[in-house]
TrEMBL record:
Residues 1-23 form the signal peptide. It comes from the Eukaryota. The lineage of its organism: Eukaryota, Metazoa, Ecdysozoa, Nematoda, Chromadorea. One of its GO terms (biological process) is lipid homeostasis. One of its GO terms (molecular function) is ATP binding. Keywords: Signal. InterPro entries: ABC1_dom, ADCK1_dom, Kinase-like_dom_sf, Mito_struct-func_regulator, Prot_kinase_dom. Residues 154-514 form the Protein kinase domain. It comes from Caenorhabditis remanei (Caenorhabditis vulgaris). This is Protein kinase domain-containing protein. Belongs to the protein kinase superfamily. ADCK protein kinase family. One of its GO terms (cellular component) is mitochondrial inner membrane. Gene3D superfamilies: Transferase(Phosphotransferase) domain 1. Pfam families: ABC1.
Amino acid sequence: MIFKKLITLKPLTKFLLVGTSAGAGYTAYTVDSPEDLRQLGIFRFGRAAKTVGKIVIDYKTSLRGLPEPSAEYDDAIQKCHQRSAEHLLELACANGGVFIKVGQHISGMEYLIPPEYTQTLSILTSQAPQASKEDVIYVVETELKAKVDDIFSEFSEKPVGAASLAQVHVAKLKETGETVAVKVQHKRVYKNSRTDVNTMELLVNIADAIFPEFRLMWLIEEIKKNLPNELDFLHEAKNADEAAARFKHLKFLRIPKINYELTTKRVLTMEYCEGAHVDDVEYLKKHKIDPHDVCVKIGRTISEMIFLQGYLHSDPHPGNVLINSKGGGKYEIVLLDHGLYLNISDHIRKLYSDLWLAILKPDLQEIRKVASQMGVGELYGLFACMVTRRSWKSVTGGIGKSKMNESEKDELRMYASSLIPQISEVLSRMPREMLLILKTNDLMRNIEHKLGVFGSSDCHLEMSRCVIRSSHEMAIRRAHNPLAKLRIGFRMYWSLLKIFVYQYYLRFVNSSSL
């Protein structure tokens, strides 16, 4: 069993003593309030070390002497998972910042982490702790070098959204009367970021020693690489502008415009866009919005980002995707939080397009070949299942030919819990770009699940269009012979025409059966 191997407390104690000494010196800054004192690096590290110690002791004492496998063992370890997940949730809420961000990552890793953890920590994606109004005002006035009342005639008491690094308030500009959204970085996040990353790195090293089946260092490496950009709201503003320019042809997509005069590295002011979270089923019903159509359009957007533009919004969880009703069942999709985009190289785009072409056919030899080129080797079957989030039986039979049922969901859960070492190996082998692509895919499929349209043919057809275009357009660029370019172009349009005809055939069949 995954959590059976536990190290003795003596090496762990050494780890914690060494780490605490380091943690005390990570961050130094002026203490202006009791909360500033509570959030000093040494206390933040102390809370983290205490939590890890409690978790280790809990597993060690609760599982001691229990035979494995047995119903008694299974019951005991599930309860340990639940208690440990609650401890981690408390730690994330107490320390905030990077700890919440890691918790959000973990909550989306159903294929690797026990459900007690993913379900408990999922609350962090929609209900992250809120900063006090005093802290928000302090950051705004410090960054904009003016009193809030001199800039805004109204500034909401409570945020309309809170996340790991910042929260958003609705305000009205004093000069123009325009309603805007003001994203304000949490007061202590930047100061504590280095401490938190170092602490998380140490804790992951401890986790690797306790649970060698898990390889989570890649998660910390990704956070270390991406966090500086996510903490720079000017960088986010430029990402939003570029995304708006690249996807302006998608008339249903809206990206808030940035007010650069009131934007700094820690404060981002943008137009206020109304709407409900994309997984708010009651809102969709109330406004007669088709959830299937919503998922098709989101799928088209994400597919264009990955396969055609190579410019991927890497955090499209429900809190960052709004649906704004325009009446009569019409709506627009509002995409928020542009702090993290992935620039996907042409090499990876080609390999990923080739992989999906092989999966959609299905062509098992081609799947193996492409997976090998991506570094996965003999674990190509597991890799294909992780990419599609379907069983190997469905992959080999063609994922477009069957919808996922409860039996297949149970099968995936069973294999996910028994193949954790292999899953960790796949994650460590594959190109780093694939980590954010898989994360985005998982977030998209979670939205589909919540709206009840996972695995629909239209969603696959939208992606297939982008895969075919990506593969053929890159082949056209590589071809030197004009006649070869013409042949490739003809094959591309012929394939797209077949998808177009098939999609309308499906719509006709479905409408006839109603």
